[in-house]
Amino acid sequence: PAPLTAAPRRAALGHGAAALNMGPDSATLGLPEEPRCPALALAQLPAAEARSQLQALVFGMAGCIESLERRLEVEMLARSCSPEKNAAQSQRLFLPDPSPRKSRASDSALPAKRKVPGESLINPGFK
């Protein structure tokens, strides 16, 4: 048989299609939707070894997340600086506001009253 790559496993795990069967001393991780992928046998480790492997896994995942966040930040920055987006934003400045709530509020609002120096803030009209 041809060697299996990680891609089918990764795709099945990404869809949440994994099944974990627990036993007294071991467990198996299977992918029912992917029959070409055999189940992975997971053996129970001594606590110290399991702790160090779990720690390495968690820190590795944190590093991947940090890397992805940096890549996303760079991508978002590049998109915000792109000429297409800047042109779209400048065109949006000249379009009327599509929000009806905002339009109604501005139409019915009374003109702002100027504050007279020395006038009371609590009781306007009095000093």
TrEMBL record:
GO biological process: double-strand break repair via nonhomologous end joining
Region of interest called Disordered, as start-end residue ranges on this chain: 81-127
The organism's place on the tree of life at top rank: Eukaryota
Lineage of producing organism: Eukaryota, Metazoa, Chordata, Craniata, Vertebrata
Protein name: PAXX protein
GO CC list: nonhomologous end joining complex; nucleus; site of double-strand break
Classification via InterPro entries: PAXX
Any one GO molecular function term: molecular adaptor activity
